[in-house]
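Target chain:
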Amino acid sequence: MASSAQPVLRLKRVAIDTYHENVAYLHRDCPVYKAEGFQALSKVEVREDGKKILAVLNVVDDDCIVMPGQLGLSEQAFDHLGVAESSNVRVNHAEPPLSMEFVREKLSGERITQDKFHHIIQDIAQNRYSKPEIAAFLVAVSEAGLDRDEVLYLTRAMVESGQKLDWEEKRVVDKHCIGGIPGNRTSMVVVPIVAAFGLLCPKTSSRAITSPAGTADTMEVLAQVDLPMEQLHKIVREQRGCLAWGGTAKLAPADDVLISVERPLAIDSQAQMVASILSKKRACGSSHLLIDIPEGPTAKVRSMKEAMQLRKLFEYVGDRIGLVTQVIITDGRQPIGRGIGPVLEARDVMRVLRNDPEAPHDLREKSLQLAGRLLEFDNDIRGGEGYEIARDILDSGRALFKMEQIIEAQGKQNLRYELGTLTQDVVAPADGTVLGINNLTMARIARLAGAPIDKGAGVYLYKRTGDRVHQGEPLYRIYSQFPADFQFACRLAEKDNGYQVGTAEEQTIPW
């Protein structure tokens, strides 16, 4: 513990975004740094007037960052501490997280109890873990594996790591796709339909982990998605729905910390995925949840057997945390819609909502099927009637009107995101029929082009499975803004364009 006699440092806000990691900065010539024997990348505790945070220490030699008598905090760390700049603060060594012992147990193949998961997740949520320690936990979950009760324990622990919303309504509905299918932006069509009907649908989404865009990334093209809790409440109460990023609402916050490490490592284990999805939905106050599991040779789920196993796991965990959970298995053999990447996907969504003749038929139909199933959570709607009701809401323009209301309520996007100016058409190598499209390859090309960080980057599909093509005819177009990204994407497309073109006799799918 820091004593009152311990030297104080003046707090400085350092304008660096460290993405879900608290970082502190001390000058190498700082007396406190020398006296306490701190080391770079060690964990420190920063205190002021009863408030404290844990942060990773960076040691600097540049007076422009911090002076010897100052302690700098990154943007996130400064906001978390919640004290004024130039306040006097004390810094001390942080105790190592005791729960790392439980992570080591899991790495060695042992089974983890509910209590141990609770301690791990609380330490992660309180920033006691460094990113390498978080990576160790994710590897333990992915490689050692979790049984269904361990997934339940992890889910409960993640729900308990933050705030929980209570809408004081009997029926609060939501849907979620497990991902893996580029362009699958059904939520942005489903939520306006369901909200226009009158069911409460507070849709909070993560940003992309391994895909070219998540719902939050795409919605951000149209509206603000970083909403504080008070604003989120107001919007959902008034509009019956929202399309927001869950990170700022402090719902299951440990999940956002885990995702920040999952993203660069491209780790997306099924156990972690189930816990992530269900914890977020339960914390958001959902009572009824529809899960979409796309199945296909290049989807996350490659076989019907695997899809059925995952379905049972979702239903088992969902039931035990108080969520009425229905799971549907959908066609995941190719991307949904035409666009892959935030701007292109937002364009597809708005075309569907506007009943534009150029709207992708598959995105429209899948959205209606999912919306119909959500509407059937209402006891007054019989099974099979939901689709017709959803279609009427979409065709009448009520869904578009509701989407416009949600955009205005969340705050219309001030920035205008344009498509990348560097383009390249990838053409058919021969005459034939498109026999298959590799989801993984198309997602990689779009990510290499710059999506989702560069919202205007991505891929626009001209041809889909079953279409006839002629040699030299464009299959899709790559969009990018920066030459390096553009070259990476084009090189991959030249090596493997992601399409199989030929005759039925030549078909070699699965990849």
User: Anything to note?
Assistant: The longest helix spans residues 304-320. The CA atoms of residues 200 and 445 lie 37 Å apart.
